[in-house]
Amino acid sequence: xxxxxxxxxxxxxxxxxxxxxxxxxxxxxxxxxxxxxxxxxxxxxxxxxxxxxxxxxxxxxxxxxxxxxxxxxxxxxxxxxxxxxxxxxxxxxxxxxxxxxxxxxxxxxxxxxxxxxxxxxxxxxxxxxxxxxxxxxxxxxxxxxxxxxxxxxxxxxxxxxxxxxxxxxxxxxxxxxxxxxxxxxxxxxxxxxxxxxxxxxxxxxxxx
Length: 208
Hints:
Blueprint: H1 2-7, H2 15-35, H3 39-48, H4 52-60, H5 64-81, H6 100-122, H7 124-133, H8 138-147, H9 151-178, H10 190-204
């Protein structure tokens, strides 16, 4: 995992988002082609359903037969369990209702944020690589910091991230200046164009 993280670092995408998304894509592939007939897994999906974001993601893979199998289960479950006389008056236990894909995604996030925390503390080359070409979104940064026990390590990571954020802010300010009528003739640089995308990715995470 160490080399996987080093090799996939890019200055304009969150390393945790990227690796988590790659792992989820493989999980979706494996699910559609190998696990869709797994009765125990389908039973968990019947009980927990599929959240809207993962339903759309699964739909994008375009496997017609797999969707027929999954959604005939879900629709029949809805039809059989939603009658006025048996509707639950209290919410079910949240653990029983979690989307299978959400649970898997959380596991991947935990694995990669834990690995990042460990390598940043123990591997100097990892720290240098992240400082030079790495990026992490706000949510995953918080998860990494939660897993760190050393205040000095936390401060070191925050210092690197804040330096990267300062660079983004500088470019964003340039964009604002260039929209002043006195500077309207000036074009955006490639770094300025990239900066507002990076700002979104820091706040909302990366999709690639």
